[in-house]
């Protein structure tokens, strides 16, 4: 750039800044309204009903050129509205700065408003024609008010003339007789595994459909736009078919020309083209759940053109061979490109050549670069409209595929054309860099094209035109056919769709005047008088909802996570209703001990429900496929199959009322499972020994057999060192009875010395030194062994009965021979060597697929087998992300699948926390899981483990045999560990996390019994191990927090424990020393001595002495 150009550029910047500072005002200091342009459909809200209205503001200089300056802060934009009940309308708005001297203002209306005022001020002065007053009913998008026919809608929406693409699409279909054509369409395209389409009928402005194919999840887009159109206009009776896939269907070589609506067209098909589902959804969900739309893409770019990098930026997956060529081209010219692949699906075997794949990038960051590439994927790139809207220069290769607006795009005006094989791409980029001004002009033309043709208003207009043109060529009678279902409108707002003015309505309805007002009405008005004025500012103008103070009923603020109450209030807000509360008498209710848990009756009912619907718990299957299918078709089939599976589970759960684990909802993880199953000879499910049935997926075993009858299933019970030999025997017998091969293993202790195994040892071990207590334990264990032996006899008898009925007893015994020992590493490898004897997936090599829930120890198991850390291990569930293979031996391959949470029955969320399915650090309510812990683990075990004393239930109020409540246990634990809040209260949440982590890690052991075995006899805990002091003096503050019935008082009363009966057998002596009180039992001092505050009386008995204020009012500081 020479000096003359630099001076010119500096001068232009100077005059632009000077213009903003001075020239906006005339000699009297008033802003020149003529220097502002304001336009857009948002200024006509009574006629154009969209989910989000919008309009544009542009600042010009005296040459009518945009002034690119950071002027957003100088604008004051308010949008106020009122209902016919004189209440403020709920309106949400936001402003997008396009960095080119213009703004986009979007707003969303939640109420039916009778008036609207849009005020646009610059430096506190109105500009252009501001304020804009909109009279008449302004409906939210959720109103069902089809007030005019489709021709009237086209006029009131100010739609352009019939698009050329629609004229071209209907050229082959001048007349459509569905009575003749319908059977041909169904016969041609009713191919469930490869084609998905929906047959629609609009009758009396109601939408009906019947879908064909296995994967019809994309009907959500066509359903939504049709329901939205029928809310806005009286659509004529119509019948048509919508293709739900990407590829156009109506091939030109077919004998019959079949009218099919599709998202995309091609040079060799006759499909009638609609806006793509991505563009359609961006119009329907503007300012909703969709972040990327044609307006936000213009307002979220960070840099203007002259600050963007002069490189071509692209990210995408490998859905086209030319995309791989792009990667090769970029590596030869890194100074021109920033491109990479984000996923490999179609060319996975070439990932080492064109990889590595990179992370996804926010679409808004695309426009940090000047150049973009609209290269085909499986069909036309659906991102093209958004690329045009972002203001970058588009390079578009030639393609046979097209979208509905391509016909109006002009090469070298709106984009730069490129050969389909990208042979001239380098030359085109170099031209753009050398001619930056021309490149910027083409980029701005493309953005202007998007603003004139691809915004939400234009999308709705295109659909209006499309349906209107279809109605002109239909000859057959439109009727609702058998098998069609009504597509219902959802979440409609209560709206009055009449156009009668307020005064006329009052006259017609005989509204009472103020003269006829009664005393009751006056009292009501007086009570709620504040409600009418809370949304009014000075000058009787209605406030925007974001300007309302904290006294208003609805508080608009950013919410990232909602409680149930927040969710309720949000739903009430969206429904147009308010909730009021009055503070009256307050009562504090003490919750039951088992809060958040099921009662015995509820537990039994839930068990029956689980058993009844056990067959409904399925995992997603990989759809049937052949080698002739293209990768894109297979991808679509898998996505649609997965979507249907998720819907079926959701419906079953909602209809039958059972609780499921939060199963994996990422299709990629299930794809990993499918690949592991297909390439494995033996599929081993690794389960946690403490609750094997929760982590076992029976349907996975069925799926393995569906893939190949030669594949085998096996359970590997990890963490088996938590089980005693008797417990392992019971589980081995149970799995033998159901024909499942099982092996016990411990990844942390792969070798177990059976000679040192303590037969009678419970989960916590036993170090009892007292002879009498040892004899008592032995008797209890002998009785438990007898009870378990009886249960075991029943199970064996049931197994024998099942096997006797089978014709494959020898085969069953050959494979299902469950060893109860905890196998060593060598023994487990020997088992893998010998268990599979049939045909193998890989010749002479046995592939062992390892599958299981997160955090059951798959990675630890592999590391122990390989005797090296080959797989990352973490206490957080879900460390492994991709399946991996390892050679365990010359003829054994281990195939590790990522941890999958499969759908499984569970009773409460507390169960999921204790089983490690839900993260402990993310739980919101710690009381139910701790309540479950205190129910499962005996009181004395908790006291021994943590060295605490739990309060005894008061006999006059509660069941003396009940378990400790969660609050009692947590308070005692928190005091013992010093976990206190800033207010001196025990920190129950912190204590709960510590205890729950002890439970999941196995420090606190609770093992579930197999079906048919009494849980009380299955898990045996040792008697009290630590010698517990029979008396203890508890400080008053701690005693109150622990809710103890007997508090240490000045008389040195004893706080009695559950071993109170032992006190009667021991001589208790009270020793005395000066200023010290102590206790001794059987001549042995208990070591408690303290001078204060335990003294019975003041030493000097100074009754007349003035008492210190801190002592006098100490009760105010008590818990």
Automatic annotation (TrEMBL):
Known catalytic reactions: L-seryl-[EGF-like domain protein] + UDP-alpha-D-glucose = 3-O-(beta-D-glucosyl)-L-seryl-[EGF-like domain protein] + UDP + H(+); L-seryl-[EGF-like domain protein] + UDP-alpha-D-xylose = 3-O-(beta-D-xylosyl)-L-seryl-[EGF-like domain protein] + UDP + H(+)
Subcellular compartments: Cytoplasm
Gene3D superfamilies: 1.10.1580.10, Immunoglobulins, P-loop containing nucleotide triphosphate hydrolases
Entry's Gene Ontology molecular function annotations: GTP binding; GTPase activity
Residue windows of the Filamin repeats: 28-136
Biological-process GO terms, alphabetical: ribosomal subunit export from nucleus
Source domain of life: Eukaryota
Domain called CP-type G: residue spans: 670-903
Positions with biased composition (Basic residues): 1100-1113
CC terms in the record's Gene Ontology section: cytosol
UniProt entry keywords in alphabetical sequence: Cytoplasm, GTP-binding, Hydrolase, Nucleotide-binding, Signal
Pathway(s): Protein modification
Signal peptide per UniProt: 1-25
Pfam families in the cross-refs: Filamin (PF00630), Glyco_transf_90 (PF05686), MMR_HSR1 (PF01926)
PROSITE patterns in the cross-refs: FILAMIN_REPEAT, G_CP
Family: Belongs to the KDELC family.
Protein name as annotated: Large subunit GTPase 1 homolog
Species the sequence originates in: Dendroctonus ponderosae (Mountain pine beetle)
């Amino acid at each position: 750039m020479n000096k003359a150009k630099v001076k010119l550029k500096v001068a232009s910047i100077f005059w632009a800044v000077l213009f903003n500072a001075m020239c906006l005002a005339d000699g009297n200091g008033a802003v020149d309204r003529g220097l502002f342009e304001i336009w857009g459909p948002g200024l006509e809200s009574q006629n154009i009903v969209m989910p989000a209205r919008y309009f544009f503001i542009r600042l010009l200089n005296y040459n009518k050129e945009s002034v690119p300056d950071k002027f957003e802060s100088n604008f004051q934009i308010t949008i106020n509205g009122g209902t016919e009940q004189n209440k403020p309308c709920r309106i949400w708005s936001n402003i997008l700065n396009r960095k080119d001297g213009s703004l986009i203002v979007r707003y969303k209306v939640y109420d039916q408003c009778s008036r609207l005022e849009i005020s646009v001020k610059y430096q506190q002065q109105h500009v252009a024609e501001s304020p804009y007053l909109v009279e008449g009913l302004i409906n939210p998008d959720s109103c069902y008010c089809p007030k005019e026919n489709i021709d009237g809608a086209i006029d009131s929406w100010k739609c352009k003339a019939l698009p050329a693409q629609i004229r071209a699409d209907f050229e082959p279909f001048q007349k459509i007789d569905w009575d003749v054509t319908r059977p041909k369409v169904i016969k041609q395209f009713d191919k469930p595994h490869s084609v998905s389409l929906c047959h629609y009928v609009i009758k009396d402005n109601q939408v009906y459909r019947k879908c064909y194919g296995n994967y019809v999840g994309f009907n959500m887009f066509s359903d939504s736009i049709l329901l939205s159109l029928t809310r806005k206009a009286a659509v004529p009776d119509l019948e048509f078919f919508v293709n739900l896939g990407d590829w156009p269907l109506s091939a030109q070589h077919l004998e019959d020309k079949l009218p099919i609506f599709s998202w995309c067209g091609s040079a060799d098909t006759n499909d009638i083209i609609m806006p793509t589902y991505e563009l359609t959804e961006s119009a329907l969900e503007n300012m909703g759940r969709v972040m990327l739309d044609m307006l936000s893409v213009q307002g979220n770019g960070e840099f203007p053109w002259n600050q963007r990098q002069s490189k071509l930026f692209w990210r995408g997956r490998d859905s086209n061979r030319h995309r791989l060529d792009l990667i090769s081209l970029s590596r030869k010219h890194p100074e021109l490109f920033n491109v990479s692949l984000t996923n490999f699906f179609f060319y996975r075997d070439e990932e080492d050549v064109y990889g590595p794949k990179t992370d996804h990038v926010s679409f808004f960051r695309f426009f940090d670069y000047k150049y973009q590439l609209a290269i085909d994927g499986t069909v036309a790139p659906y991102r093209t409209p958004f690329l045009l809207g972002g203001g970058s220069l588009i390079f578009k290769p030639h393609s046979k595929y097209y979208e509905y607006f391509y016909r109006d795009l002009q090469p070298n005006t709106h984009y730069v054309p490129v050969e389909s094989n990208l042979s001239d791409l380098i030359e085109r980029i170099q031209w753009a860099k050398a001619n930056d001004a021309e490149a910027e002009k083409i980029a701005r033309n493309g953005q202007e094209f998007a603003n004139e043709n691809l915004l939400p208003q234009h999308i709705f207009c295109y659909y209006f035109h499309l349906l209107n043109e279809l109605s002109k060529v239909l000859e057959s009678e439109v009727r609702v056919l058998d098998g069609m279902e009504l597509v219902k409108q959802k979440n409609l707002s209560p709206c009055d769709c009449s156009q009668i003015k307020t005064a006329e309505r009052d006259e017609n309805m005989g509204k009472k005047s103020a003269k006829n007002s009664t005393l009751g009405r006056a009292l009501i008005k007086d009570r709620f008088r504040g409600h009418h004025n809370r949304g009014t500012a000075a000058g009787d103008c209605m406030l925007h909802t974001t300007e309302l103070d904290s006294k208003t009923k609805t508080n608009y603020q950013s919410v990232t996570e909602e409680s149930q109450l927040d969710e309720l209030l949000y739903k009430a807000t969206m429904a147009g209703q308010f909730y009021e509360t009055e503070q009256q008498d307050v009562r504090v209710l003490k919750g039951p001990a088992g809060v958040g848990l099921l009662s015995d009756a509820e537990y039994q009912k839930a068990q029956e429900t689980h058993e009844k619907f056990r067959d409904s718990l399925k995992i997603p299957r990989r759809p049937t496929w052949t080698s002739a299918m293209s990768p894109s078709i297979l991808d679509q089939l898998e996505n649609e199959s997965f979507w249907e599976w998720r819907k079926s589970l959701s419906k079953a759960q909602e209809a039958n009322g059972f609780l499921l684990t939060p199963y994996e909802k990422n299709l990629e993880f299930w794809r990993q499972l499918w690949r592991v199953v297909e390439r494995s000879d033996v599929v081993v499910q690794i389960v946690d020994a403490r609750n094997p049935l929760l982590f076992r997926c029976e349907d996975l075993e069925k799926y393995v057999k569906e893939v190949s009858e030669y594949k085998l299933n096996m359970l590997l019970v990890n963490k088996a060192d938590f089980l005693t030999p008797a417990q392992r025997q019971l589980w081995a017998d149970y799995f033998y009875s159901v024909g499942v091969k099982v092996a016990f293993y411990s990844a942390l202790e792969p070798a177990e010395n059976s000679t040192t195994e303590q037969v009678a040892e419970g989960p916590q071990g036993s170090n009892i030194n007292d002879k009498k207590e040892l004899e008592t334990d032995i008797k209890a264990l002998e009785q438990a062994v007898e009870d378990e032996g009886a249960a075991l006899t029943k199970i064996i008898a049931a197994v024998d009965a099942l096997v006797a009925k089978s014709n494959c007893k020898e085969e069953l015994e050959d494979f299902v021979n469950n060893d109860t020992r905890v196998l060593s590493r060598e023994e487990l490898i020997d088992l893998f060597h010998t268990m599979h004897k049939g045909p193998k997936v890989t010749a002479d090599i046995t592939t062992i697929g390892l599958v299981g829930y997160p955090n059951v120890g798959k990675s630890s198991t592999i590391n122990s087998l390989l005797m090296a850390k080959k797989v990352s291990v973490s206490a957080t569930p879900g460390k492994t992300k991709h399946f991996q293979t390892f050679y365990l031996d010359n003829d054994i391959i281990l195939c590790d699948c990522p941890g999958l949470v499969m759908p499984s029955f569970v009773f409460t969320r507390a169960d999921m926390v204790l089983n490690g399915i839900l993260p402990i650090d993310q739980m919101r309510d710690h009381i139910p899981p701790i309540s479950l812990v205190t129910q499962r683990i005996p009181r004395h075990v908790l006291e021994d483990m943590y060295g605490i004393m739990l309060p005894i239930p008061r006999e006059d109020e509660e069941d003396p045999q009940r378990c400790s409540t969660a609050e009692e246990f947590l308070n005692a634990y928190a005091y013992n560990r010093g976990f206190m809040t800033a207010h001196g209260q025990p920190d129950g949440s912190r204590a709960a996390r510590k205890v729950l982590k002890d439970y999941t890690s196995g420090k606190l052991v609770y093992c579930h019994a197999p079906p048919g075995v009494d849980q009380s006899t299955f898990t045996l805990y040792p008697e009290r191990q630590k010698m517990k002091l029979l008396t203890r003096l508890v400080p008053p503050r701690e005693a109150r927090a622990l809710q103890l019935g007997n508090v240490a008082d000045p008389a040195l009363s004893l706080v009695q424990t559950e071993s109170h009966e032992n006190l009667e057998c021991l001589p208790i002596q009270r020793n005395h020393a000066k200023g010290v009180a102590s206790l001794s039992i059987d001549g042995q001092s208990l070591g408690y001595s303290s001078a204060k505050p335990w003294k019975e009386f003041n030493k000097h008995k100074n009754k007349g002495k003035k008492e210190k204020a801190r002592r006098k009012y100490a009760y105010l500081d008590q818990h």
